[in-house]
């Protein structure tokens, strides 16, 4: 009697069982040797694949000026492992300059809670629409930032204070929500009582005022802000 053993042909798409090594890589468990000399590497235009894991680097510069609030949310809620890092390039300032900056800078809470998302969202829409006043203001902000960097690194903190004022006046051009009559009055009061310049931190509309007041002018500025019911906040400089 002739017997035939029939075996079902595997489909080309039938997944093969993983070996113990493959399962280890799929779980993301790696040794130093795996990273230095992986068994398989694929280098593409926008990603690198190591075995079963993909790596891709995304770089965003200029935050928060050029991206809206919540821009990291899709990454933070990503279902797969992801590493996020922020690089801050330190200024080459002397220890004396850093100490003077710390001593002469004051921060006050306005008592106004604002949603920065609304301001940044409108700014993004205006930028995408090519609103000339907004685009020009953003370009000016970048130039002012470079000048501020130069002032701090050269130790000219009075110039830093004056540039804060230039920056604030320029920033207000981008949206009517960045400041209002009350906030303008507070700022003008600070300027009359020792501040060379200042700005609302973040998107604007409320939150915290930062002022630079050199040469023993801080007591007078503190008194003026107390009259306006602004609370001073302690901070430090890294």
The CATH H-level homologous superfamily of the domain at 95-233: GHMP kinase, C-terminal domain
Largest sheet: 4 strands, antiparallel
Task: Tell me the number of strands.
Answer: 7
Rounded to an integer, what's the Rg over CA atoms? 28 Å
CATH class of the domain at 95-233: Alpha Beta
- Separation of the first and last Cα atoms: 89 Å
Kindly report the average pLDDT value: 81
Helix content: 40-55%
Principal-axes geometry comes out as: elongated
CATH topology of the domain at 95-233: Alpha-Beta Plaits
**Helix count, DSSP H or I runs of 4 or more residues:** 9
Given as residue ranges, the uncertain stretches (5+ residues, pLDDT < 50) are: 1-9
In percent, how much strand structure appears in the residues? 5-15%
**What structural category do the secondary elements indicate?**
alpha+beta
Task: Describe, in plain words, how this protein is organized in 3D.
There is one protein chain. With about 240 residues, the chain is of the alpha+beta class. It has a domain at about 95-235: GHMP kinase, C-terminal domain (Alpha-Beta Plaits, 2-Layer Sandwich). Helix content is about 40%, strand content about 10%. The chain has helices at about 20-25, 30-35, 75, 95-105, 115-130, 130-155, 155-170, 180-190, 220-225, and strands at about 40-45, 50, 55, 105-110, 195-200, 210, 230-235. Strands 5-6-4-7 form a four-stranded antiparallel β-sheet. A three-stranded antiparallel β-sheet has the order 1-2-3, with no helix packed on it. A hairpin with a 7-residue loop joins β5 and β6 (about 210). α6 packs antiparallel against α7. The longest helix has 22 residues, at about 130-155. It is elongated, with a radius of gyration of 28 Å.
């Amino acid at each position: 009697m002739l017997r035939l053993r029939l075996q079902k042909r595997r489909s080309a798409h039938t997944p093969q069982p993983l070996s113990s090594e493959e399962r280890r890589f799929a779980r993301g468990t790696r040794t130093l040797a795996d990273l230095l000399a992986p068994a398989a590497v694929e280098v593409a235009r926008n990603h690198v694949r190591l075995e079963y894991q993909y790596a891709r680097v995304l770089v965003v510069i200029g935050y928060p000026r050029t991206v809206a609030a919540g821009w990291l949310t899709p990454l933070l809620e990503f279902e797969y492992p992801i590493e996020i890092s922020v690089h801050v390039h330190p200024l080459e300032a002397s220890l004396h300059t850093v100490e003077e900056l710390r001593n002469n800078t004051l921060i006050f809470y306005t008592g106004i809670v604002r949603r920065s998302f609304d301001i940044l969202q409108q700014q993004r829409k205006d930028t995408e629409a090519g609103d000339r006043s907004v685009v020009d203001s953003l370009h000016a902000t970048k130039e002012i930032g470079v000048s501020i960097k130069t002032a701090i690194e050269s130790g000219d903190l009075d110039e830093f204070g004056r540039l804060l004022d230039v920056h604030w006046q320029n920033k207000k051009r981008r949206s009517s929500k960045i400041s209002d009559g009350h906030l303008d009055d507070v700022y003008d009061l600070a300027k009359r009582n020792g501040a060379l310049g200042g700005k609302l931190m973040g998107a604007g509309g409320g939150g915290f005022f930062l002022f630079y007041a050199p040469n023993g002018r801080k007591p007078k500025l503190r008194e003026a802000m107390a009259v306006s019911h602004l609370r001073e906040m302690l901070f430090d400089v890294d």
